[in-house]
């Protein structure tokens, strides 16, 4: 079924039904999700990673017949999807449907898992906390660019350290800092929109994920079910001690 030309998908779970709509502005993720739903890829999979006040994650094909206690989260369908950031229009408010992915160290292009997804539960923030987080995220961006530049000079840095060339190290550090600032200055600083601040201070979410993971849909019905799932008891690997399963996923025609 399309609502305002957006496709709806129903996830029938052991704790109740969840309906999500898929954004047309993220067509690769939309079409892939529809394809997997129609192929039955998600039927019988678990919510294998649940973190209260953060998110519930599912879609690992290896979770279908996983014995109790088995580590999950590494399963895939043999491909990734290019990131489709529609930011700041779509962000990690409570109920956002987003694609899981591997970390930046092995996935610098932030490509999405071909099948694993998460639904944000998050928490509420004050406006002061949002401003503080904005500053932290901008500082972290500068630090990441600096570290990336430094990695390219590791042999040179190692030689200087070995030779005790502190002046050379300081000079290189100043040069890399200047380069990092110049690179970061080419892009606008991260600034939360009024819509983001309104959402994060009322319904809540996970703002630190914004611009780093593809948000490709949102929950339209069943937030009470998501709240029940996020409250279940989990083990040290964040897997629910009692399985929470997607019985069937269906495109609502």
Please indicate the percent range of residues in DSSP E strands (runs of 2 or more).
15-25%
Q: Which overall shape is indicated by the principal axes computed on the Cα atoms?
A: globular
Approximate helicity band? 25-40%
Radius of gyration: 21 Å
The secondary structure category is: alpha+beta
Low-confidence stretches: none
**Straight-line N-to-C gap:** 4 Å
Average pLDDT for all residues? 94
Number of E strands: 11
Task: Present the secondary structure layout.
Elements: E1 2-3, E2 6-13, E3 16-22, H1 27-39, E4 47-51, E5 55-58, E6 80-81, E7 96-99, E8 112-113, E9 117-120, H2 127-151, H3 154-163, H4 166-185, H5 194-202, E10 215-221, H6 223-230, E11 246-251
Antiparallel strand pairs: 1-2, 2-3, 2-11, 3-10, 4-5, 5-9, 6-8, 7-9, 7-10
Helix pairs in contact: 2-4
Structure at a glance:
With 253 residues, this protein is an alpha+beta fold. 34% of the residues lie in helices and 20% in strands.
Give a structural overview.
- With 253 residues, the chain is an alpha+beta fold.
- The chain is 34% helix and 20% strand.
- The strands form two sheets. Strands 1, 2, 3, 4, 5, 7, 9, 10 and 11 form a nine-stranded antiparallel beta sheet that branches.
- α2 crosses α4.
- The protein is globular.
- 31% of the residues are buried.
- The mean pLDDT is 94.
Distinctive features:
9-stranded antiparallel β-sheet; 253 residues; alpha+beta; two-stranded antiparallel sheet; globular
